[in-house]
Design goal:
Blueprint (H helix, E strand, L loop, with lengths): L1 H22 L5 H5 L4 H4 L1 H23 L2 H13 L1
Helix pairs in contact: 1-4, 4-5
C-alpha cells in the first residue's frame, strides 16, 4: 500500500502544479516559467517509489535464491544507478 500512497500523493501534487500554472495563472506567462512544486514531485517522488519497488524485487530474489550476496549486489547496483 505504500507505493499506492506515494503514487496518489504524486498525482495530487501534479494536479496542484497544473492548477497553479493554468487555472490561477491563466494568461500570465511568468507563472509558466515558475516550477512551483514540480521540482519536488517529479524527481524526488520518482526516486522514492523506484527505490521501494527495486528493494521489493531484491527481497523477492533473496526469498527465491536464499543468497544474500546476490540480493545485496543487485540492491547496491540499484542504489548506485
Amino acid at each position: 500500500y505504500t507505493v499506492f500512497v506515494f503514487e496518489t500523493v504524486q498525482t495530487i501534487l501534479c494536479g496542484v502544479d497544473v492548477s497553479y500554472w493554468f487555472f490561477t495563472g491563466y494568461g500570465n506567462l511568468i507563472k509558466l516559467s515558475n516550477p512551483y512544486i514540480s521540482a519536488f514531485d517529479g524527481p524526488m517522488m520518482i526516486v522514492v517509489i523506484s527505490v521501494i519497488v527495486q528493494w521489493f524485487f531484491c527481497y523477492q530474489i533473496y526469498s527465491l535464491s536464499k543468497s544474500w550476496w546476490l540480493a545485496s549486489l543487485i540492491a547496491a547496483v540499484c542504489i548506485c544507478l
